[in-house]
Amino acid sequence: MITLTNRAAGEIKRIVAEQKLPDAVALRVGVKGGGCSGFSYTLGFDDRIAETDQVFEIDDVRVVCDPAVCGEERARSTTVTVRAGKITTVPFKLR
């Protein structure tokens, strides 16, 4: 499951408003090869949502990802957060 911390949701909303992004924009979460565990996450804004994308509404933030990515165990337990002023991911949900 992809989750957003409250701080990340607020920061994403701020960026969308500040940059006057279209209402249809979503935060796209992806995975690519690389990084110390063999993969790294990609985050970006996207207003092109495919019919096959999985779409989540989390704290009034639309989050999308390709089902091939969301279906993988590593992506299902991802938290999007803010660290050192940057939006980033944590591979496992922190409690």
Topology (elements, then pairings):
Elements lengths: L1 E3 L1 H13 L7 E8 L5 E8 L7 E5 L2 E5 L1 H4 L2 H4 L1 E6 L2 E5 L5
Parallel strand pairs: 1-6, 2-5
Antiparallel strand pairs: 2-3, 4-5, 6-7
Word description of this protein:
- The protein is of the alpha/beta class and 95 residues long.
- It has a single domain (2-90), classed as Hypothetical Protein Aq_1857, Chain: A (Sandwich).
- The protein is 22% helix and 42% strand.
- The chain has three helices and seven strands, in the order E-H-E-E-E-E-H-H-E-E.
- It has helices spanning 6-18, 67-70, 73-76, and strands at residues 2-4, 26-33, 39-46, 54-58, 61-65, 78-83, 86-90.
- The strands form two sheets. It has a four-stranded mixed β-sheet. The chain has a three-stranded mixed β-sheet with strand order 1-6-7.
- The longest helix has 13 residues, at 6-18.
The CATH architecture assignment turns out to be Sandwich
CATH superfamily: HesB-like domain
SS field, number of helical segments: 3
> Could you give the order of the helices and strands?
EHEEEEHHEE
CATH level 3 topology: Hypothetical Protein Aq_1857, Chain: A
- Could you name the ranges where pLDDT drops below 50 across 5 or more consecutive residues? none
Key descriptive features of the protein:
95 residues, alpha/beta, Hypothetical Protein Aq_1857, Chain: A, four-stranded mixed β-sheet, three-stranded mixed β-sheet, globular
